[in-house]
Amino acid sequence: MKLLIIYMDKFEYRTTTKTLLELKSEEKQETFRDVLVGFIHSEKEDEEEVDKKVKKLVKSLKWAAGKNKTKRIVLHSFAHLSKSKADPEVVLSILEKAEERLKSVGYEVYQTPFGYFLNLEVSAPGISQARIFQDL
Q: Are 67 and 12 in contact (CB under 8 A)?
């Protein structure tokens, strides 16, 4: 699993093109302020140890949220950090489990629509710990 974490003053998305045909069409747009966005890339090998990867993902996001003094987290499936890709069902499972675990300890958690290209508008400050890459 690869994880790019960016703290943002503003994160806005709008769905554009559906990439997985089996999903229902969804037009959605949301804006978040003072938010940590996790760009999450699940790899094929993650399928063997989903719970272990979820635990590491949650720990990393909680640590980064603390460093950036926010309790708001957006989980975004981002299949562009590695050549290896997990099956979509596994990715969805990882995202759902991470969201559930984070919410259970007081975080406000959102997910971008899975299986869509998104138009993004971001504003990220140039401060220490605002951008972090991890190989989980």
A: no
